[in-house]
Amino acid sequence: MRKIVIILVMLLLSACTGHEAAQNANPSALEPRLQSAASFPYPSVRWNHQTYRITDVTLTEVDEELGEIADYSLDESETLTEPYSNYYREGTKLYAIKGKPSSLAIAILAREGLYIQAEVAPK
User: Fold this and answer.
1) pLDDT tens, 6-37?
2) Alpha carbon of residue 90 to chain centroid
3) In this structure, are strands 105-111 and 65-68 parallel, antiparallel, or unpaired?
4) I need a labelling partner for 55 at 20 to 30 A (CA). Which of 30, 42, 81, 108 fits?
């Protein structure tokens, strides 16, 4: 019985440590994001009638604020108010990227001083 308890404790500790290591490997994984639903082909933001695919590209500088996420949903068929996301929470700020037109890419504030690039998704 004692061995079983020790094994269970070790399994729990290793699972927690593995999760922290995975988060630390990718700076964008540290953010308060919600998991994307399987019905969406990828994590995205919809802004200005365009769908932007969230990338792993991180930025430290951006241009003007474009707005903020108004709706969050994992239901692709739901009618949502733009801008919305299947990945970021309501209130997440969106920015223009210096030197790039917003018709190609935008930045999402992941946490203070760290932005994630989202690029226009292929149709």
Assistant:
1) 555 555 555 444 434 333 444 444 444 444 44
2) 12
3) unpaired
4) 81
Residue in this structure with the two tokens 């019905």, named with its chain if needed: 39
Structure tokens at 92: 């997440």
And the tokens for 46? 């919809």
For every residue of the chain, which 3-state class applies, written as one string? CHHHHHHHHHHHHHHHHHHHHHHHHCHHHHCCCCCCCCCCCCCEEEECCEEEEEEEEEECCCCCEEEECCEECCCCCCCCCCCEECCCCCCCEEECECCECCCCEEEEEEECCEEEEEEECCC
Nearest CA among 69, 39, 59 for reference residue 105: 59
Residue in the structure block whose two tokens are 């700076």: 27
Q: What's CA 79's distance to the chain center, in Å?
A: 21
Full-model pTM: 0.67
What digits encode the pLDDT tens for the residues 75-102? 777 788 889 999 999 999 999 999 999 9
